[in-house]
Write a structure and sequence with these properties.
With about 375 residues, the protein is of the alpha+beta class. It is about 30% helix and about 15% strand. The strands form 2 sheets. A 6-stranded antiparallel sheet has the order 3-8-4-5-6-7. The longest helix is centred in the N-terminal third of the chain and has 13 residues.
Length: about 375
């Protein structure tokens, strides 16, 4: 089918192709999403309100050879949807704007597949739609019909034989018992991140249903599965830094087997230990503790855990006023403080200090 006939079927689209520096672009005009006289949004059939996405070999796309950077733990559907919701208000209370050439503050490309990659916790800046649908990527598996769709599944138009106008949306729930429309999250041209009723994949179009292979059926675990707010980021520590974050880093280095005093001061001994740790983990050995080093340095701690990593967590919790004894034992008081912290910061409340809770502990001040 030709690109022209495909757009005719999708209807109501004004498309202007522009060549700028040899890169194809698109300006798309779409109608209002609301039915006249109705407060409920109309269910939208497949429309091309998006532009040509980056190809797989683009520097804007995570390469298949880099899939080792992707999340390996099972993600719950609720956690995935919570991740998607973040972009609805991440831009000073408004949606993240659409762009195929820019990455948002969290490192993900601001188009539809970058948005889905963010929701799935994939490697930054994210796969494109073809990569999301490709079984060789190990990210999704194709479903036999849209009737199988569940929360967190994807509807993907990944066809490459009719132009590069491809798209992907996140299925949330059916909009009615007839299953003639559903609620979905998507990142689209002009509007950015939206939550609305759609009909992509229902009827005759190029959308097929897919299920993320790491998507579990439960509420998830592992220490605050919900993504932290966009403003939450790992602190950067280096020579001369001081304070509780440095002390926690020193305690975590001790938990990794490095003999170092937890004196809250980032001096030569701390830098030397950081460099050794970075070399051992295949990181850039610059002696600076940034996001990549933190992600390798932290350890998941929970009830029954003990040692220097627990001390690091207790040190951080005390910054928020929980008044714990830094004794290295994860007992009932430490769990209670963790649960309270997770509730206060809208994290998954499980009493486990995993990556997201660590990041929020260290990055919320």
């Amino acid at each position: 089918m030709s690109l022209r006939s495909r757009f005719t079927r999708r209807t109501r689209i004004a498309l202007i192709g522009i060549a700028a520096g040899g890169v194809a672009a698109a300006i798309v005009v779409v109608p209002s999403l609301a039915d006249s006289g109705s407060s409920e949004p109309a269910a939208v059939a497949a429309q091309a309100d998006y532009g040509p996405e980056p190809e797989a070999d683009s520097k804007l796309v995570t390469q298949v050879g880099e899939l080792s950077t992707m999340a390996t733990s099972t993600l719950s559907p609720d956690t995935m949807i919570n991740r998607a919701r973040v972009w609805l208000t991440a831009n000073n209370g408004g949606p993240v704007p659409y762009s195929m050439e820019r990455n948002w503050k969290d490192g993900y490309r601001q188009d539809c597949s970058g948005f889905v990659s963010m929701a799935l916790g994939l490697g930054k800046p994210g796969l494109n739609t073809v990569g999301l649908a490709d079984s060789r990527s190990g990210v999704t598996k194709r479903l036999s019909s849209v009737s199988q769709l569940k929360k967190g599944d994807l509807l993907i138009d990944y066809r490459t034989d009719d132009g590069d106008f491809r798209h992907v949306v996140i299925f949330e729930k059916w909009a009615n018992t007839a299953h003639s429309a559903y609620w979905a999250y998507e990142q689209r041209g002009t509007y950015g991140t939206t939550h609305r009723q759609l009909k992509y994949g229902i009827g005759s179009d190029n959308y097929d249903p897919f299920r993320p292979v790491k998507l579990g059926g439960g509420s998830g675990g592992g220490g605050g599965g919900q993504v932290p707010a966009p403003s939450v980021s790992w602190p950067v520590l280096k020579s001369g830094s001081k304070g509780a974050d440095v002390k926690s880093a020193q305690q975590l280095l001790a938990a990794q087997g490095y003999s170092i005093a937890a004196d809250s001061s980032f001096g030569p001994n701390t830098r030397a230990a950081v460099v050794k740790f970075q070399k051992a983990r295949g990181l850039a050995a610059d002696g600076v503790i940034g996001p990549n080093t933190w992600s390798k340095l932290i350890k998941v701690v929970k009830s029954g855990s003990s040692g220097a990593a627990v001390k690091a967590a207790q040190t951080q919790l005390n910054v928020y006023g929980y008044g714990l004894s830094v004794d290295g034992g994860f007992g009932t008081k430490t769990k209670s403080a963790t649960v309270a912290f997770q509730k206060n910061h809208k994290l998954q409340v499980d009493g486990v200090i995993g990556p997201n809770t660590w990041r929020t502990l260290l990055g919320s001040r």
